[in-house]
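COMPLEX REQUEST
Ligand: adenosine-5'-triphosphate
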Amino acid sequence: MSDSLFQLEKVGFQANGNQILQDISFTVNKGEVIVFSGPSGSGKSTLLKLIGTLLSPTSGKIYYRGTDLQKIDPVEYRKEVSYFFQNASLFDETVQENLSFPARIREEGFDRERAKKLLERVQIPETYLSKEVKELSGGEKQRVALVRNLMYQPKVLLLDEVTSSLDQENRAIVLDLVRDMMKDQQTKVLAVTHNQEEIDQASRLITIKGGKMEESK
Ligand SMILES: Nc1ncnc2c1ncn2[C@@H]1O[C@H](COP(=O)(O)OP(=O)(O)OP(=O)(O)O)[C@@H](O)[C@H]1O
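STATUS: Structure written out below.
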């Protein structure tokens, strides 16, 4: 078990009397890129939120590196496992204030060099640091939000339809950075997507239908 990254055992989730997920069991091993697919409303986002601890299972267990998620300090867990979603919201402040937020909550200084490098990777000039978020386009906001998630290198990146509201150009920029993270810095990715190009990159495709899972690849 300790060699697995995540292990789900008969995970279920109920909300307002509805069984949204049922009996979800699978193991994610360390070198895998997992993509969750399936029809709209089938429970994919809910599953990713359970893994990201934004929600708690109402039945079953989730283990991270062999330890029950309920027994892991949430602050420590968030340092390793980063959840990034479609239309991630930035604070209504400057780009720098947003990018320094992860350091502020850890009472550390802002790593301007890292911010600069990551911004460059998503084709945003350093001068944007002093820009107000409300001056940015939708695609720029999503790219800045991704940079904010990566200011501390996560071990696992949970991506929930992060490119679905982006045009082709922005999508390519975001995917390129995610790919680099996976390659050079060994970040593991679990993603929910409808995009075929992203699905093709999966080493494993897990399909969720009506709250139940089918493994397809
Ligand atoms: N907190 C909640 N309370 C009640 N119902 C919920 C809650 N969260 C999700 N649902 C319902 O659970 C089902 C699964 O939602 P989920 O967002 O996980 O689907 P999805 O597969 O990610 O869909 P999409 O591809 O459209 O994003 C939907 O029917 C949704 O309405």
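REMARKS: The chain has seven helices and ten strands. The chain has a mean pLDDT of 90.
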